[in-house]
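RECORD TYPE: protein structure
NAME: Expansin-like EG45 domain-containing protein
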Amino acid sequence: MDATPAAILVACLLLSTASSSGAAAAGCPPSSIVVTQSGTGEWAHGQPVYAVAVRNTCGCAQSDVKVDCAGFDTTLAVDPAKLQPLPAGGLCLVNGGAPVAQGRDVTFSYAWSRQFGFRPVSSTVAC
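PREDICTED:
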């Protein structure tokens, strides 16, 4: 039995939709989370203050974002809903584990004698 052009078109559209959502998820590695920081010029308890922005550059939301924060310390309180050190492994959870959507940076400040890297380690992608 021959497939009609309409049936072929529907099959192609379904395959295209399935592959583009898989491609988007595959295209959101930890490196699609970008952490930038800069000195604010302010001081807290004798330490320079740094402003941090965690940005998702992927079109898909990413939740359970974890960054390497081994040795992280601060003289300035950081809202644990924005950055929370985890009990083991030198990791911190960003945004309380809630999704970080593209265009909705998670920001916080800390104060210490040096900047910390906050290298993105893992996330869960939701397209």
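COMMENT: DSSP finds one helix and seven strands in the chain.
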